[in-house]
Design goal:
Strand order of the largest sheet: 2-3-1-9-8-10
CATH superfamily of the largest domain: Aminohydrolase, N-terminal nucleophile (Ntn) domain
Radius of gyration: 22 Å
Helix content: 25-40%
Number of helices: 12
Distance between the termini: 50 Å
CATH architecture of the largest domain: 4-Layer Sandwich
Number of strands: 16
Order of helices and strands: EHEEEEHHEEEEHHEEEHEHEHEHHEHH
Length: about 375
């Protein structure tokens, strides 16, 4: 992962806001320890912390087009960027790097905001179009990569994490009390609201444009719906599912650094680990977090892969997790997976990673869905039986 942040002014940035931008950037160092960069002009400041995965030598950000009129900060991966690059080069675009970041810049030049329809991947990016004095924020279809924003007068601030916005010193950390009940009940927020008043998350599959002092957000993608596939046999559907899963895993193996795998022992991560082990030439490094007596840890050991693969496990130390959370180091809002904080030191030698989270929802869902239904039913019962 990488970290992005920025301050955009409708008129002109103040001198102190350049320093504030650096504070915002460096509080995201844990997201990108390999490199740091900033771009500042009269109205815009963009900042980036990089974790190098693709094009290690020339992937520095912020990155611009040839004329230095379009600037980008980007967190994520565009899995089909080589295919898009070939089309853009045929259309006359000239590349200076081999990074997927530059492909986004040229795709924006070619197709404007509609460039997002061409991308397959996980992404959160900000594009500053200097001649048009216009900022574009975009988030991938399923919201894998986080992106938050807020308005402060005639300024718009954005960042990969809320704490970077707070680090600017331009925004007060005030509780968004109406959202608190929802978070306590479900652990999540259902819309763009966050636990901090005035700070919003850009929803999955959405774009946000800031120009002329106005914010305009719109949805560019939604989950497609269609007729049930009852006319197809189970074997046919299973074969199609496997084909799509293999393609998804293969696309995510694009990396210039060693790959690792977060292995829980469940059907989702185990299936992905098995496919990865067959597709890569080097040993697959897997990691797990669990309590000692968890059956999932025993399954993870069993699913560790062929003898050439290596499996590591990390215990969960609540003291470490609690301390990290108390210092504002949790990478999610509010507190989704504190156990992962303990895993990070063990996995530092593997910059690239995969896990089976999306597959778990696709291949049968999770207990949270039924649990949420019960919670909502109880809440409705309490309302109906109230005074």
């Amino acid at each position: 992962m990488c970290g992005i942040a920025g301050i955009i002014a409708a008129d002109r940035l103040h001198a102190d806001e350049r320093a504030r931008l650096t504070f915002m950037r460096d509080v995201l160092t844990h997201r990108g320890p390999d490199d740091a960069g900033t771009y500042v002009d009269e109205r815009a400041g963009l900042a980036h912390r990089r974790l190098s995965i693709v094009d290690l030598a020339s992937g520095h950000q912020p990155l611009s087009n040839e004329e230095a009129t379009i600037w980008i900060v980007f967190n994520g991966e565009i899995y089909n960027h080589r295919e898009i690059r070939s089309r853009l080069e045929a259309a006359g675009h000239r590349y200076r790097t081999t990074s997927d970041t530059e492909t986004i810049v040229h795709a924006y030049e070619q197709w404007g905001d509609d460039c997002v329809h061409h991308f397959r991947g996980m992404f959160a990016f900000a594009i500053w179009d200097a001649p048009r004095r216009r900022l574009l924020l975009a988030r991938d279809r399923l919201g894998v990569k986080p992106l938050y924003w807020c308005r402060v007068g005639d300024r718009l601030l954005f960042a990969s994490e809320i704490k970077a916005i707070l680090e600017s010193g331009l925004v007060r950390a005030e509780a968004n009390e109406p959202v608190l009940a929802e978070v306590i009940t479900t652990r999540y927020t259902s819309d763009e609201q966050t636990l901090f008043r005035g700070i919003f998350r850009l929803l999955p599959g959405h774009l946000l444009v800031y120009g002329d002092g106005r914010v305009q957000a719109r949805q560019y993608w939604d989950v497609p719906t269609g007729a049930p596939a009852r006319s197809r046999s189970f074997d046919d559907l299973a074969a199609t599912f496997r084909e799509l899963l293999e393609e998804s895993v293969r696309l995510r193996l694009m990396s210039d650094v060693p790959l690792g795998m977060l292995l829980s022992g469940g059907i989702d991560s185990s299936a992905i680990a098995a496919l990865m082990a067959r597709m890569i030439a080097r040993p697959l490094q897997t990691f797990s977090v669990a309590f000692k007596d968890r059956a999932s840890l025993r399954r993870a050991r069993h699913q560790g892969g062929p003898p050439r693969d290596r499996h590591r496990r990390a215990g969960l130390l609540w003291g470490v997790a609690a301390a990290r959370v108390a210092r504002g180091r949790a990478d999610r809002a509010p507190l989704e997976r504190p156990a992962l904080l303990r895993l990070a030191p063990r996995a530092r030698s593997r910059e690239g990673g995969a896990r089976g989270r999306g597959l778990g929802r696709t291949a049968g869902g999770l207990r949270q869905v039924s649990a949420l239904a019960g919670q909502l039913a109880r809440r409705q019962h309490l309302r109906d039986s109230g005074p």
